[in-house]
């Protein structure tokens, strides 16, 4: 467990650095040009995904630790892996990166407050606002905001080098996340086996619900096909490394990691299928 506790903050820092390094001037311009749409989609993730998780919990009555894990995942911002999916799908990568980065920045300020108010209200988690805000807010800022700023700074000063290194960075980040989640699966395989049916069903339902919410919001905003694909990919993919960080360092309960690990395993083939389907649609429309 000590290895996981050391690896999680490093992985979160690196993944947030990738998000910052991915931002280009055109992404900033896109925020200015589509600020209302991006704000609407960000609020959709911040508000609707936790609400969706809460409704699923109330309807399906999963064990407390499983419910807590799903709620925690729903509260986390989008994951950088969504940018890779959007790239593979030939969706609007710039929009995907912008949404991930903007959602991550918003999470720096909103996540500590939301976690400390939502969790005690919905689940039997004893968290003191003073403890979370004073002792953990700085850690969240260091691991979320600082790497994004560092990545953006390096992109500004060394754009050619960073652009050249980005594919390598993304591969390292993806492999790191995969290894972390596989380690969690291996370490907690007995506990996962005991609650496998509820974990798999919840992961499947939440993934499909997040996709449905994203599709509806995209239709409301009348997004083009490329933008809609990026949004549909963005919503279900959460920052699972950050969820692991909060579970281990703030809640001090690694059992909350069970849902995140199963969620990744169940979600990956679904997202790859969406990616392949969208690419095939592009080929058919040519």
Automatic annotation (TrEMBL):
Places the protein is found: Membrane
Its membrane topology: Multi-pass membrane protein
Claim: Disulfide bond is one of the keywords in the record: no
Pfam families: SBF
Cellular component aspect of the GO annotation: membrane
Keyword terms, alphabetized: Membrane, Transmembrane, Transmembrane helix
Transmembrane segments: 6-23, 38-57, 63-88, 100-125, 137-157, 169-188, 200-221, 228-250, 256-278
Protein's recorded name: Sodium/bile acid symporter family protein
Protein species of origin: Colwellia psychrerythraea (strain 34H / ATCC BAA-681) (Vibrio psychroerythus)
Lineage: Bacteria, Pseudomonadati, Pseudomonadota, Gammaproteobacteria, Alteromonadales
